Please model this.
Amino acid sequence: MTFKELNITEPILKAIEEKGYAVPTPIQGEAIPAALAKRDILGCAQTGTGKTASFAIPIIQHLQMNKEAAKCRGIKALILTSTRELALQISECINDYAKYTQVRHGVIFGGVNQRPQVDMLHKGIDILVATPGRLLDLMNQGHIHLDKIQYFVLDEADRMLDMGFIHDIKRILPKLPKEKQTLFFSATMPDTIISLTNSLLKNPVRISITPKSSTVDAIEQMVYFVEKKEKSLLLVSILQKSEDQSVLVFSRTKHNADKIVKILGKAGIGSQAIHGNKSQAARQLALGNFKSGKTRVMVATDIAARGIDINELPLVINYDLPDVPETYVHRIGRTGRAGNTGTALTFCSQEERKLVNDIQKLTGKKLNKASYTI
Model:
């Protein structure tokens, strides 16, 4: 199957070909035709499956082809997501896909001066990508009205609930028109998510590409059983042996992420940390450095890592194990993408052994035990 066979218009086809897209991913192959047919969608898919294109391309095409919508001022599509990094990532994709159309878009998020965002809104846009807090702020100030919305996307819904955005979402939903197309995406489907979808979606097309418990076969998964105090020595040893690779290291806490960067610095290994205590400018700079290869090692907390989107990331290291086994699946999904192989290494201390058992039970896969000498 090709993108042309999905009935995508020429201007968008030209743009995605320039991005190097050859064939649709499984979720794109299912979601794009359904979205073009104006169906509501309930998509269960992990990170790295091509979700953004599966909702952004149909929305751009609908707006491009609807001459009446083009004449109408007001925001016509709202894409709600969890973090600044993810909002920026989606906005960049829309910018690329809409390159040869007249569709206008903008992005808003907290942590930065709102004036440029307000100026952008007053000039008029068709698609708005937003985080819940800043959206509500600007709605309350009268800068944003949602009465013209025709397309609504809720992306990474489970992560939004984890971050405590459920009350914000419930304040936003009543402001949307009843008649609209809703595209709902979540990596996992806990009961709270299912309850939310029941109230939001009308006879949706259900798409499940990667079950929440599965991990990609292209990822080699290994575990080091190591004393807590020896984790830093093991990390330095591994990074010194893989000096040409980009590596994403996961830490459970912001404090520990900063501590790891200091330890690596003393060992002569350059790295940067990305977490919620960093300023927006610092986070964007760190992400840019990592994507460009200027920084080889990125140390991240789970929420901050949502903005990291790199197809060729060969190695992910779980310095600390996550409390929730599904988060492990999210983490290692950063490698082994787009047909590439990848490696996920996990450091497990004595007190974390139960967490490894929980992960193996969820995924149905045994982590290979790795030996080491320091």
Remarks:
- The CA atoms of residues 203 and 367 lie 40 Å apart.
- The radius of gyration is 21 Å.
